Amino acid sequence: xxxxxxxxxxxxxxxxxxxxxxxxxxxxxxxxxxxxxxxxxxxxxxxxxxxxxxxxxxxxxxxxxxxxxxxxxxxxxxxxxxxxxxxxxxxxxxxxxxxxxxxxxxxxxxxxxxxxxxxxxxxxxxxxxxxxxxxxxxxxxxxxxxxxxxxxxxxxxxxxxxxxxxxx
Length: 168
Prior knowledge:
- The chain is mainly alpha-helical and about 170 residues long.
- It has helices at about 1-30, 45-55, 75-90, 95-105, 120-155.
- Helix 2 packs across helix 3 (about 75-90).
C-alpha cells in the first residue's frame, strides 16, 4: 500500500513537470536576442570612444537601471542614434546631455548636477553618516560614564558595609 502511494506521487510529480516544460518550451524556442536594426557606423575610433563614454553616463529611460550603452530597449536604440546624430552636428557632451535632460528630465543622467534641487541627493548620505557617528559617540560616552560611576561606587566604602579589618 505504501509503495503504491509512493509510485502515485512520483507519477503526479512527473506529470506536473511535463506540463510545466510544455508551457515553458514554446517561449524559450521563440525567444531571440534583440539586435539594433540599424547598427551604428562610426567615422573613426575617436568618435566611437566618445560615443561609448557618453552613452555610459546616460541612463536608459525605460530600463532605469541600465546605461544607454547597455540597454537593449527600443527607446535606448533610438536614443543612441540620436546621441550619435547630435555628436555629428558638432554638439559638445554637455550640449548632448542638456538636450536629453530637457527632453527626459534629470533622471537620464547617472550623475545629476549639483544644484539646490539635488543637494539632499549629493550631501544627504554624508549628513546621515555624520549624524549616525555623533549618535554612536554620544552613546559610547554615556555608557563609559555610567560604567565609571558604577566602578567608583564599588570602590568607596559604604556606611552599611562592614570593614574588612573587623572580626565577627
